[in-house]
Design brief:
The protein has eight helices and no strands. The protein folds into two domains: 157 residues, Pectate Lyase C-like (3 Solenoid); 110 residues, Alpha Horseshoe (Serine Threonine Protein Phosphatase 5, Tetratricopeptide repeat). α5 runs antiparallel to α8. It has 275 residues and is an all-alpha fold. Helix content is 44%, strand content 0%. This is Pentapeptide repeat-containing protein. Keywords: Signal. It comes from Roseofilum halophilum BLCC-M91.
Length: 275
């Protein structure tokens, strides 16, 4: 899109919106004319498809801004507030997002290749389908981020506990296959992380694999016993007993509701292992 036309659309969108504070409009014009707007107030600004490559937005307030499909490649967004911002398919290649607040941001399909996310807050951000080849995310907060289908997510960053928490978020939203995969990733890092066997067993049960669930809980039981974790051992055994009994009753036609009724019975016990 022609730069002048793109700028016109941005300003037109602002003029049709609710009346804005004059200072905000000046900041927006400053950004679009010079690409230099550190510490500016751009909260809720309409910047869809804006051409902001290499822009200086250091510590700018871009909370809830619409930046979908915007070109922010090479931009300096260090320390910026991007809480709840719409960054759908935004180009953030090589962008400096160190220390930025991206809590709850929509980054679906965004290109974060080579971006610096060191110490950034990604809690609750949706990164589904995002590209993250060679991104730096040391120290970033990602516990409740949605990471479905992320491409080239930096390895060695997430801990088993991180994957376990992410799996719980997936399971709560009904994405049981995603939860199963994340529990498996946790176990690839630490094969003795017993809570992941418990969680993966529940995911297997949700997907109709009762025997697989029992197999996972059997392993969890053995690990908990070895670790001297009596509560974990007893919980694993209860999971197994409840499921075996329910499966047997189902075979005899004495139980209705299938595996879902078993899951509902086990769910409260699983919550105690959410780290």
């Amino acid at each position: 899109m022609n730069k002048a036309i793109s700028t016109a659309f941005v300003l037109l969108g602002l003029s049709l919106a609710a009346p804005a504070v004059a200072e905000d409009l000046e900041h927006l014009r400053q950004l679009l004319s010079s690409k230099e707007c550190p510490m500016c107030n751009l909260s809720e600004s309409g910047l869809s498809m804006a051409e902001l490559e290499n822009a200086d937005l250091t510590e700018a307030d871009l909370s809830f801004a619409n930046l979908d499909n915007a070109d922010l490649s090479g931009a300096n967004l260090s320390g910026a507030d991007l809480t709840g911002a719409l960054l759908y398919k935004a180009d953030l290649r090589r962008a400096n997002l160190a220390g930025a607040n991206l809590a709850g941001a929509n980054l679906i399909g965004a290109d974060l290749s080579y971006a610096d996310l060191t110490g950034a807050n990604l809690a609750g951000a949706n990164l589904s389908g995002a590209y993250m080849a060679n991104a730096q995310i040391e120290g970033a907060i990602i516990n409740t981020a949605i990471l479905n289908g992320v491409i080239d997510f930096p390895g060695g960053i997430l801990t088993p506990e991180d994957y376990y928490r992410l799996a719980f978020v997936d399971a709560r939203s009904g994405n049981h296959r995603g939860a199963l995969e994340k529990h498996s990733l946790a176990l690839q890092i630490d094969p003795n992380f017993a809570p992941a066997y418990l969680g993966r067993g529940v995911s297997r049960l949700q997907l109709g694999d009762g025997s697989g669930a029992i197999a996972d809980w059997t392993v969890a039981s053995a690990i908990f016993e070895t670790q001297g974790n009596e509560q974990g051992y007893q919980t694993s055994q209860e999971f197994i007993e409840v499921t075996e009994k329910a499966i047997e009753e189902s075979k005899r036609g004495k139980r209705r509701g299938g595996f879902l009724s078993i899951v509902n019975q086990l769910a409260p016990m699983l919550l105690q292992f959410l780290l």
